[in-house]
Design goal:
233 residues, 10 helices
């Protein structure tokens, strides 16, 4: 029996290596918005097959690594190039590209999510894993979060002074912050809302007449928040 197992182990590992190489290439193509050489059904079957061969943990770790590599080597670098030019639009674009790719990847690895749901651990789903990696690897990297906060507050200030600003992009970025919370408002609150409310309070203390300050501030702040896309405030 031990001889049989010793012969089978290399075969199993070779299967896992070959299958993952196919999946890795497909994941990289999806994240880069390229056509894959294999159909969705073939990719799903390969991912499912790795679970049948007891390689689910390896598959999960490898998938996390390839997504992280993509974010750190491509997405983050692309965004940093736009920091001093068209930052907000650049962030919107890399997020939309990444989240669209993650939806496809989620479907390919659907069986992995089903396995996670059937267990009692805190392992995130494939899509949620992507959100966490984007948050930690891109949004919270270096100057990116500070740049986002400054840019949003500057645009709000410009809008208050009568300038026309890119509201659809602002709304998209705020929606991104909400989604990165994984079902909570935590990322939105910590990365933007708290600063927004503090800055707004200071602004209206200076600009609003002393009579009816609370009512006027609440109404005007609500109007600006709605117009700028901050409907949850």
């Amino acid at each position: 029996m031990s001889l049989f197992l010793s012969r089978q182990a290399p075969v199993e590992m070779q299967y896992a290596t070959n299958t993952w190489n196919l999946l890795r290439a497909a994941v990289e193509d999806i994240l880069q918005k390229k056509s894959t050489t294999l159909s969705f059904e073939e990719l799903y079957q390969h991912a499912y097959g790795m679970h049948l061969h007891k390689q689910g943990d390896l598959l999960q770790q490898n998938l996390q690594n390839v997504i992280m590599d993509h974010l750190s080597s491509r997405v983050r670098n692309d965004l940093l190039k736009a920091v001093e030019t068209n930052f907000l639009q650049g962030l919107k674009q890399v997020w939309e590209d990444f989240s669209a790719g993650m939806l496809i990847i989620r479907d390919v690895f659907m069986y992995m999510d089903r396995k996670v749901e059937s267990q009692t651990n805190d392992q995130p789903s494939v899509y949620t894993m992507g959100l966490i990696l984007f948050r930690d690897t891109v949004l919270h990297y270096g100057q990116v979060r500070d740049k986002l906060q400054r840019t949003l507050l500057e645009l709000i200030s410009q809008e208050r002074n009568g300038a026309v600003v890119d509201q659809p992009t602002i709304r998209s970025v705020c929606t991104m912050l909400m989604e990165l919370g994984g079902g909570t408002r935590l990322v939105y609150e910590e990365d933007f809302e708290q600063l927004y409310l503090t800055e707004s309070a200071a602004f209206f203390r200076v600009r609003t007449p002393r009579r009816r300050p609370c009512i006027i501030m609440h109404t005007h702040a609500g109007r600006i928040a709605y117009n700028m896309g901050f409907k949850s405030l």
